[in-house]
Amino acid sequence: MIEDKNQQRTPLSELGEFKLIEHLTQHFKITQETTIKGIGDDAAIIDIKDKQIVVSTDLLVEGVHFDLSYVPLKHLGYKAMMVNISDICAMNAKATQVTVSIAVSNRFPLEALEELYAGISTASKLYNIDVIGGDTTSSTSGLIISITAIGEVNANDVVLRSGAKPNDLIVVSGDIGGAYMGLQVLEREKEVFKVNPNSQPDLSMYTYIVERQLKPEARKDIVDLLQQLNVKPTSMIDISDGLSSEIIHLCKQSNVGCDLYENKIPLDPQVISTCEEFNIDSTTIALNGGEDYELLMTISQDDFPKIKGNPNLTVVGYITEKDRGMHLVTRGETKIPIIAKGWNALGENIE
Ligand code: ADP
Ligand code: MG
């Protein structure tokens, strides 16, 4: 569906593993002062000094997490970086280094991997992160990418999932549901394309939500903003699987309950209009969609004046005692229990 403008196809076998690694990694520059040794030895070296170090890994598998018929490889590289940086942000930490490992089948030419690495490189420059290593191997089927992100944080600034207290406010950054609706649009276009390969998708009405799906941003800016506002959340998690499953994680790990207000959930107008077009309830999408990579946090009521009116942060509810349970307060003011229907890698119901 997305046209391959790059017609040159150099088989990977022409280079061999070592030349391939060298080719893909030759332009990476070290910018972090904590990186002592990057790519090129048996292991990288990081000197984190008096900070704490946070580490997070994600694995992305073709056919499970992405579909190359509508995801350009450059976007995939960028997104793979964001998925990991977002986890570091959710610890209230600053991502500083990554390692990138790939397993690739010989159906991919060198040019495809160059595209993937162009996305990785763009993300590393924009977010000021050093690519310090990885591994490269062959795969008998599709493409597999695993990125490990490393970050630093002052011991006093770390925010866990487990710190929420009754009466804390529940706050969401940005808006949610866009990435899921973007995926719906792309999947619909893919079906149209299957029937009529000459059709050119017109995505102009859906630019925001398609971008939310294909080119998400980790909310490093929110971590910086919280620091500027002098707000340390009591708990935090990134929204990768959907608001409902993330709030359940926070509540369970903090031993608390919550009231989430349906009419407070931040939705972009394009999400609302696309939900209407697809005849889907926008609250269901916001609760269960996922892949928005926004931050969900709880903050003390005392900090409310500091975030009040900030367009990047929306209060969507508050934390209650555990025995009150976890509820969505609907527009009609009825309370319904929150259950996790978020996307789940193993296809199970996570409740
Ligand atoms: P080893 O034999 O010790 O696994 P490799 O030959 O796989 O070493 O890797 C050589 C160097 O290149 C190492 O520094 C490694 O971290 C880095 N590297 C290997 N594959 C990748 C990759 N896909 N992306 C970035 N760096 C890589
Ligand atoms: Mg290796």
TrEMBL record:
The keyword Transit peptide does not apply. Mg(2+) 2 binds at residues 58, 87. Belongs to the thiamine-monophosphate kinase family. CDD domains: ThiL. The lineage of its organism: Bacteria, Pseudomonadati, Bacteroidota, Flavobacteriia, Flavobacteriales. It catalyses: thiamine phosphate + ATP = thiamine diphosphate + ADP. Mg(2+) 4 binds at residues 42, 56, 87. It comes from Winogradskyella immobilis. GO terms for molecular function: thiamine-phosphate kinase activity. Reaction mechanism of ThiL seems to utilize a direct, inline transfer of the gamma-phosphate of ATP to TMP rather than a phosphorylated enzyme intermediate. It holds the Pfam family AIRS. Mg(2+) 5 binds at residue 241. Pathway: Cofactor biosynthesis; thiamine diphosphate biosynthesis; thiamine diphosphate from thiamine phosphate: step 1/1. This is Thiamine-monophosphate kinase. It is an enzyme of class 2 (transferase). SUPFAM superfamilies: PurM C-terminal domain-like, PurM N-terminal domain-like. Mg(2+) 1 binds at residues 57-58, 135. InterPro entries: PurM-like_C_sf (IPR036676), PurM-like_N (IPR016188), PurM-like_N_sf (IPR036921), ThiL-like (IPR006283). Keywords: ATP-binding, Kinase, Magnesium, Metal-binding, Nucleotide-binding, Thiamine biosynthesis, Transferase. It comes from the Bacteria. ATP binds at residues 117, 134-135, 161, 240. The keyword Cytoplasm does not apply. Residues 40-153 form the PurM-like N-terminal domain. Substrate binds at residues 65, 291, 343. Mg(2+) 3 binds at residues 42, 87, 238.
